[in-house]
Amino acid sequence: MQASVRVQDNLALQEAMSLAGERGLDLAVLFCLDAGYPEANERSFAFLLDGLGDVSAGLAKLGLKLTIVAGSPLEAVPLAARQAAVLVTDQGYMPLQRRWRQQISEAVKCPVILVEDNISVPVGVSSDHEEWTAATLRPKLMRLADLEPLPVPLPFPNCRFWAPAVSAWSEAGLKVLEGMPSRSWLDWLPIDHGVPATNLAGGESAALHRWSSFMQVGLERYDTDRNDPNLEGSSGLAPYLHFGHLSPLTLLRDLKASGRWVPAVSYRRAGEDPASKFLDEVLVRRELSINFVWYNPVFATFQGLPEWARRTLGQHKADQREYVYSDRDWETARTHDEAWNAAQTQLVTTGIMHGYMRMYWGKKLLEWNSEPAQALELALRLNNRYALDGRDPNSYAGVAWCFGKHDRPWAERSVYGLVRCMTSGGLARKFDLRAYVERFIPPS
Hints:
Elements: H1 11-23, E1 26-27, E2 29-33, H2 42-61, E3 66-70, H3 73-81, E4 87-90, H4 95-107, E5 112-115, H5 123-126, H6 134-144, E6 160-161, H7 167-171, E7 175-177, H8 204-218, H9 222-225, H10 238-242, H11 248-257, H12 274-295, H13 307-315, H14 327-331, H15 338-350, H16 355-367, H17 372-386, H18 393-401, H19 424-430, H20 433-440
Parallel strand pairs: 1-6, 2-3, 4-5
Antiparallel strand pairs: 3-7
């Protein structure tokens, strides 16, 4: 268990329990807590540990135990699999996650089953190539994602806990972590403590509570409120989806059960339904992002942008910038623009940045930087360091959108070229910008 840190709608766990029950085998559930995971820090580990605590409690209700090993899956999993009849794992979409699964499958002798359960339609099924925009992927997904309700995991009478021998792990210098996972583990984990944890609770319980509340209260206002950062009209589910504490299949199943699912044949006629806009974000936009990182090997670089965007930004690279800031100025929110400073402060202090403000934030990083490629690199570095949903396909695609990805050419202008621009005046016309700024930068 690595990408799907939950019990409900965890299809990999269901597959493993089913195999164990059918074959009369014992079952081990293993998570590898890798303190060296790239760009991870206290903030992301705190959220992750919340999820591991929930999983540990949830598995106990099924008569199972979560075994947590400190170290890389490349070290720990093959050692455990020496005793295994079969290895079942979930799917991750970032390059490191994919390499882990590929290398582990090559290192073990038992059969390996990989289950995709953090996406509505397996990435290779929805498309066999990198999609240009949401418009090209949307009809494929809407047709394929019209799913039947999913079963809730149930305990199997013959599914017994198996404790893998720890001697091989000990000999390899790996430690089995005892006790209930919690944020108290942060004190001794050798991780980057430069970005403190936030008060936002992670885990499956918090995720399901937030989703239930949004379904009851927020969904009806989503279409009108989602772009106003003062109204908290977005779902707030991105961190939970990123850490696998919530499955998109849960969202789609519940929408269907509530009668809010928009069938593919009527999607174009459902534009006034708030649920259709939410569905477009959680299904189409999210899975377009996964498509991007899956098929584009240079998605995290300037070369991963569309050719037209690279060309136009290059042609305008020498344009005069009204302002230019250092990386330190950006990180500490010391620009002339209060709106940008407020967005950066929100990110640094809460781990969350409202989606509309993140678009503006990224656009200004491009506008006030003399080198577009460096601006993209800086945006990803700041987002990955501070955002709870950083280091995620959605984040990479969202930042790249600010530089032209999944967008079209617009009217040409200085600095941006044909890339879409955003202005503080545009923000002020959409919502109370002063109220937003004063939430994060109180008047002196």
